Structure formats: structure tokens, C-alpha cells
Amino acid sequence: MYVQAETPAGVVRGGRDSFGELYRAIPYATAPTGPGRFLPPVPHPGWSGVRDGTRPGPTAPQPVRDFGGLDMTPYFGPGWVRGEDYLTVDVRTPAADDGRRPVMVFVHGGGFVTGSTRAALYDGRAFARDGVVLVTVNYRLGVPGFLALEGAPPNRGLLDVLAALGWVRDTIAVFGGDPGNVTVFGQSAGATLTGALLATPEARGLFRRAIVQSGSGTGAFTPEQAARVTAAAASALGAEPTARAFGEIPDERFLQILPALAGLDLRTGTAADPLAGLSPFSLVLPVQPADGPLDGDVALLIGTNTEEGNLYGERDLGQTLFGDGTERLARAHAAISAGHTHRYSFGYRSTALNGRLGAAHTVELPFVFDVADEPWLHGDTGLLGPDPVPEGLAARVHGAWVAFARTGDPGWGGDTVEFFG
């Protein structure tokens, strides 16, 4: 069944099912093409007639990532689906009416180089079922999103997320959401972006709550580190390290040079590589979010999985990538937020890879989105392995996220809650 919603930019057609309504690939900014890939996002001018929002749209240019015997397509999605108009959001809502429901805005992970709203894990049916309006966001990745260049604003992917939050403020009431009750949540790179929003003055007033899943408040590159990545990219491309020069280079070339950027030594006299060589892209900031002035008026739910590093085959890597920076951000927020910092630890052990995956990076996501019983997450190559998940665990995790978005209280006071099977 088709439905329609009239937004300030134009009418969009969506679909209705037993969970509510779904509107896909709604633009929040103009398509980033040519030199525009290195400019701040520009509000979309709108459209005439009815825009088709019944089908998924294009994704940001991105490489294919391979995790061997583990099927990570539910997490990464289909990869690069070509098309210029990819600065879009998907909206899942119980109904596009005047319901004024809590809104959750999800920022996907993928190492700042991959991921999209098309990933199966982010379907959002359970949120709509439980009375929440879910918005999932595409943003610029890799070179267009995060490479530091002369003549370009830094952190363009973060600027995209800010623009999407502005779109939510101005538009979400059309879809039955309350623009005054917005929770931003992200995982991995998306969680690091969410943490950065807490320290971004331009983000103030755009959301009331934040959830940081396996991110880091200390995951940004210093300007010196970013300059090394820029120099390597310019050398690989044979171009000057400026927005003007890079604006003439097609996206295909940016993907082709990624192997040349892998393994760069980003250690400096004052900073270690916060991503331990796993990605040549991150936020570029003079001060880490955990060390900056945070917005203490925003309630925070923050945590990690107990065996994050297992996804990368290195158990200790999880503490370096996620644990230390999560703890720093949690402590900094707790110091200024008057009891509005809530922590969790996720310890359910996936039986994937003959039991070796365990409570690795990304394993909490099926429980947050309450899709842990889906067959495409199980089997010999599935993220959750061949065994069924514990009864009630997904309902408990998902319910805590919904409760936090609705009231600011996930249900366990000031202690750290542990989610185990």
C-alpha cells in the first residue's frame, strides 16, 4: 500500500506495511558532485510532483570490504550503488500524522569509508512497532567525506550529519515525530561522529540525547596526522592537495588509491594513531571530543562490547580502538551532566567462526534493532553464528534503547548494565 507525506521540499511517496510507513532516499542536501564534493552540504532545493520514496537510493562511493568467512553484508550493505543524489535519509514511522513521537537518528559505521542506510541491520521495523520514528542517514565517506584539503571545510561527513539533523528539526513532524525529542545514536565510526556532535557548538539544540555504541571520544586525527594522509593521497593521485584539484578527479580514482593509504605510519611525537592503522580516515580535530567542552544538557548512553577486537582477529585491539576512548568520553560527560550518563557493556558471545567471534565489534547491533532472529544473521557465515540467540535478550536491549529515547532513562539508574546471554 502506498502513502504520501507532504514535506517542505515536496511530496514524497512511501509504503505501508504491518509495522507502519517507510519513506526511502529523501534528500536532505543537494547531490555532492564535482567540486561540490568538497564543499559544505547545501540544502536541497525541493522538487515538483511526487517523489518516489518506495525504493532505496544510491550510496556514497565506497570500496568492498572482505571479512573472509564472515558475511558482513548485513552491516556494510550492498557497497557502492551509483548515483549522485545520495545525501539522503530513510524514515520509518508508525504513521505520518501529528503523533509527536520520539525520534531516533542513526549514524552508521564502517570505518569512515563504507556503509549506508541500505544495510539490512538498520531496517527499523521494531522501532516503528514500538512507537518511535527512526531516521537513518547517509553521509560522505572516504576522500570526499574526511580528507583534509586546502580550500575545503574539514570533516564534511560530520557536516552532512549536522545537515541531516537540521532536516529532522524542520521536517520530522510531517512524519509523526517530535523535533523536540530527538536521540542521535551511532555505532563504530557513526558512534565517533555522535560523540563529536556532543562537542560541536553548531549541534546544540538539535538533539536531546545521544547513544555511543562502540565508538571513541579520542578517535580523531590531529591536523599533523591528517596532513600525512593528505600528502599520500595527493602523491598517489598526482594532484595538488587542494579542493580545486581534487574536485576534478572522479570518485573511482579515490577508491583506487585506498590501498596506497593503508598502513600509513600516523604516529607523531604527541599522538598515537587512534585507529591503529585500520582506516586512513577519521575526524580531524585539534582537540579530541572527550577533551573538549561537551554539551552537558544532552543525556548520554555509552558502552562497548566485551570482545570488540575479535572482529579484527586481535583481542587487545578493542581496548585501543574503542574501550579507552569510550571511558574517556563517559567520564568527561559524567563530570558535567548531573547524573545523565548511562553506561552499558554488551557481552553476548556470537557462535560464528566456530565460536571465535564472541562478543565482537558489531554483534550488539542485531539486538539493538531487534532483528537477532532473522535467518540472514545465522548459519555458518552469519554474524550471529549457527546457534539461536538467548530468548528475551534482543527485547531487553532494544527496549532499553527505546526507553532512553522516550524518557532519557534506559532503566538501570547510574550503574553500568551488562547484557549477557
Describe this structure in words.
- This protein is an alpha/beta fold and 421 residues long.
- It has a single domain (2-419), classed as Rossmann fold, CATH 3.40.50.1820.
- The protein has twelve helices and twelve strands.
- Strands 1, 2, 3, 4, 5, 6, 7, 8, 9, 10, 11 and 12 form a twelve-stranded mixed beta sheet that branches.
- Strand 6 (101-107), helix 2 and strand 7 (133-137) form a beta-alpha-beta unit.
- The radius of gyration is 20 Å and the shape is globular.
- The mean pLDDT is 97.
Radius of gyration: 20 Å
Indicate the percent of residues in helices: 10-25%
Number of helices: 12
Q: What's the story with the biggest beta sheet?
A: 12 strands, mixed
Order of helices and strands: EEEEHEEHEHHEHEHHHHEHEHHE
Straight-line distance between termini: 38 Å
CATH architectural name: 3-Layer(aba) Sandwich
Report the structural category.
Answer: alpha/beta
Q: What is the strand and helix layout of this fold?
A:
Layout: E1 2-7, E2 10-17, E3 20-27, E4 50-52, H1 73-76, E5 88-93, E6 101-107, H2 125-129, E7 133-137, H3 142-146, H4 156-171, E8 177-187, H5 189-197, E9 209-213, H6 223-237, H7 243-246, H8 251-256, H9 258-261, E10 299-305, H10 317-334, E11 341-346, H11 365-368, H12 393-407, E12 416-419
Parallel strand pairs: 2-4, 6-7, 6-8, 8-9, 9-10, 10-11, 11-12
Antiparallel strand pairs: 1-2, 2-3, 3-5, 5-7
Could you give a quick summary of the protein structure above?
The chain is α/β, with parallel strands linked by helices. The protein has twelve helices and twelve strands.
